[in-house]
Amino acid sequence: MHRFLLRIEPIVWLLFGQGVLIGTILLTSWVLVVGMLEPLGLVPADALAYERALRLGAHPIGRLVLLALIALPLWKGAHHLRHLAIEFGGHARDAVVAPVLYGLAALGSLAGLFAIIRL
Amino acid sequence: MSVPAHPQAMAPSRPGRTRTAPPQRPDQAPFGGRYRSHTLFGATGFVYLLLGLLALEAVWALGGGSASWSGFQASLASPFMIAIHAISFVSVIFVGVRFFRLFPKAQPPRLGPVRPPPAPVIIAALYAVWIGASVLFAAILAGGIL
Amino acid sequence: MEVRRHDVIIVGGGAAGLRAAVAIADADPSADVALVSKVYPMRSHTVSAEGGAAAVARPDDSLEDHAFDTVKGSDFLGDQDVIQYFVEQAARELILLEHWGCPWSRNEDGTVATRAFGGMTTKRTWFARDKVGFHMLHTLFQHSMRYAQIRRYDEYFVTKLLVDGGAVRGVTALDVRSGELFVIAARAVILCTGGGGRAFPFTTNGNIKTGDGMALAYRAGVPLKDMEFVQYHPTGLPRTGILITEAARGEGGYVRNADGERFLVERDYGVGTKAELGPRDMISRAIVQEIEAGRGLKGTYGEYVHLDLTHLGEAHIEAKLPFVRELARTYVGVDPVHEMIPIRPVVHYMMGGVDVDIDGATDLPGLYAAGETASISMNGANRLGSNSLTECLVFGARSGEKALEFARGSSDASEDVLRQQGAEEGARIDALRGKRKGGEKMAVIREQMAAALERGCGVYREESSLEEACRALAQLRGRYADLGLEDASRVFNTELVAALELGNMLDVAEAVANSALPRKESRGAHTRKDYPHRDDQNFLYHTLCSFDPGGPRIGKKPVTLGRWEPQERKY
Amino acid sequence: MGEQKKTFVVTRFDPDRDDAPTTREYEIAVQPDWKTLDALNFIKDHVDGTLAYRWSCRMAVCGSCGMMVNGEPRLTCKDVLSQYGDTVHIAPLANFPVVRDLVIEFDGFMEKFERVKPWILRAKEKAVEEGTHRQSPEQLADFQHFSMCINCMLCYAACPVVSNEPAFLGPAAIALGHRYNLDSRDEGNGARNQVFRGDGTVFSCSYANECSEVCPKKVDPAAAVNQAKIGALLDWAKGLVLPRGGPE
Ligand SMILES: Cc1cc2nc3c(=O)[nH]c(=O)nc-3n(C[C@H](O)[C@H](O)[C@H](O)COP(=O)(O)OP(=O)(O)OC[C@H]3O[C@@H](n4cnc5c(N)ncnc54)[C@H](O)[C@@H]3O)c2cc1C
Ligand code: SF4
Ligand code: F3S
Ligand code: FES
Hints:
Chain A has helices at 2-37, 50-58, 60-89, 94-118. Chain A is mainly α.
């Protein structure tokens, strides 16, 4: 497992980095509008209505953005939590923690891919 | 006061000729003083993981038709979820502010003949993109354009 | 007692020791070299050298000029064959260092930059900002890590040379970490242990510069040469003695007295038009004279004068002298961009050392020495700034190669003799460790030794003060035998190490004072108030100082002249 | 002069005698211009000769006098004493096994240091007769600050990853390896990048940046480590399409 983790480290780190960079840039307005303003009724009612949401999301660019929005934060989260686990709990459990977290991110990314194809 | 570090931290592969006292972590680690910002940065991992999963749920719901999409939207309207998003929003801003400050110096001084611009320029550009993209994306989501 | 065997032992991991090790490894990849150092090599005091290393590199410069500057700087006491070899090899060594990664400062066109230095007629000093020794040492050390055949003994303190059948057979080394004594056997030993400035109260030298190698050779019957010549550097910080590099003057700094006068220009101190770029001995004397004439400034730690860099401007200081700025800010709270730096002459370098020939060989077969600890007679009565780093490389390499040749041609010592000598030395060390609480205090003896040297062997010397110093030091030697130590622990016993170092410094101090006494003339760094002129008729020779239980014995050795006959030293 | 009394609480440990480190207090008069090291030297000379610590140059360049002062990694010969109150805690550097008192085990670092091949690697050595390489001031500036490391280990004492990840090469070793990668005279990128991706991988760093915060020589090891990640990544990507080459 240790060898395998070392092998995939560069790619994981790349995804993590993009999670921090692109993830943050996309999430700022996503969280603000979808997570807060819309539920509070502060945006026009039709803005995120099904028709419009689907039109935006199913556009090729929309699909790409949505995939980034799903996958990149997952990798950022998984990688950071792995580090947090090491810093708090030590290195011994890494052989379990890392595969679980990265597995979650990988599955989530695959599911995301499937979800945007389904749109 | 201090917490023990990993017993092998900075130990040579073959132990020295005399017994040593085990390594200790720096006094303030991992919560205090200089480590607070870093530990919080790491802890935003929870938030991002959650946001990634929520985004997945959103897209899944959208793909499931009108009813599932409305259901998803309704689930976001609970005070609990709104609070979660408020915390997330602060976290995301924190990640951006901390990371964009550290970003420029992590760039190699050159790639082949190409040299990155000076740090203040990179930071300014990052903020410009961050704010520009956020305004644009927010405008699209909120129905202002497209 | 464990006996380790190698082909060659190098004692010391400074510039000289590391260069010797690399030279041996390059000459014969199968040679097994032990590099023994009492500190991790990158802590060696070469690390503190700031100004630069000299070698002819510019088309408008010549080997002849470099050689003559060195001869003249030495006040004609340098051996001219050695100097000739030195200037010929200098550039080659600095180029090698460049190939190994030394970050030399550069001209716009990518060639190596050079700067002016005291006593050099042209810009021939290579530099890496103002951290030259640091960069050279780390480059050498990191390069040396490539060679698996260089076996390092880090933090092993060499306590004694093992001699049998008229040849050196190895050393005993205290593993500071465990407190265990080892016999390290070899067919040749090279001493590269640096200088001994720590014997003096105000010095640019670090805590480890205690003249160990000189004392080791001295005790093994090898004479020390020209020990009376101790270089005072004109620009040290008061109290700490921390060096403000000569490059500060090379880059255009001024020396001013309390009235703000540039006295090196205003009065005749022999430096002529070179003013601040004159040689160290002359500027040090000028400062002492200014202070004695009441034109110095008074501070908590004695009187001083000023080094003025304020006219150079922040950009220039940051580009060329950033470390000077950092040191001045940290250690005297002065920003040289805006304020003048307090300075005073402090002990800097020992021209004298283990008597060796041009191959670095001593009279004791198998024993070699290089670097500051050796006196190869390149520096004579006064060393020119930036010559000694290059000296470490040139003669480190040469002594390495010669020692290897010697080792190939000789045979191993018998294990029994080594064991027995090791056991005797072990008993001595065990007796010293944590012995007798309440005996003589180490700090007291150290301070009194330093005071005796300062009074007797300062910038100016005279008969009576020198005699007094010899007496005081002999008496301290007696009291040292009664030393009281507290630390009985084996592990990392720094008090024990300091006690051994103090013994070595006492040897060096006695050699300095006793060598200075009979030299009734003023030459280079040795300035007698009672004999203010150079006397080539009677004193154009090297002083030899040999160990004798009854006190140091003084002898003579001729100077090798050649191309240049002695002439008046004027700038 | 303005003498002042201060109490020094110093960690003591002697493996011959003690199971675990203890502390001992020394009250001494200090001078206003003293550095922390001056106080230790005073204690050693006049109060307790058994105290063990390393020092030499007392001018912040040999790198041997790093300790924790009031919980912060400091170069004690440069550390201004007057900034502290009446009580000053001095302990050995964090994250290192302790040999004795304030002396840490340094060989672990030496092993890591050697692994990054901190020397010039070239396919073909340049002959001395050819003279020096040409290196422009800009090319020098690319790596110069990374070459300023004095191996004082303060960065290791501050890094939260070093505490828990024994294999991690750590800030100074990576900075010095990276320094050679950036040197225009060097061709050993490939070999070093393999080390950077191997055991002790540069990717273990979580960019806490504390290494750079405490570095007394402004080496900015955090920059080096994170630049090294990009280098190691690009090199890895290149390795996927091109066969590997270059000196070992
Ligand atoms: C502040 C300062 C600035 C200088 N600036 C310049 C300059 O600009 N240009 C110039 O040319 N010269 C300069 N010099 C002089 C030059 O730096 C020294 O002459 C030179 O570095 C000496 O190198 P070395 O290898 O002989 O000894 P060092 O570097 O002193 O090394 C001595 C080595 O011997 C080891 N050692 C000593 N005793 C023992 C023992 N008993 N057992 C085991 N190991 C032992 C030590 O551990 C160390 O590794 C300067 C000197 C000082 C002090
Ligand atoms: S990077 Fe800085 S803190 Fe770390 S060892 Fe080097 S000089 Fe010390
Ligand atoms: S503190 Fe440690 S985590 Fe990275 S940025 Fe520095 S090496
Ligand atoms: S004593 Fe050399 S760095 Fe502090």
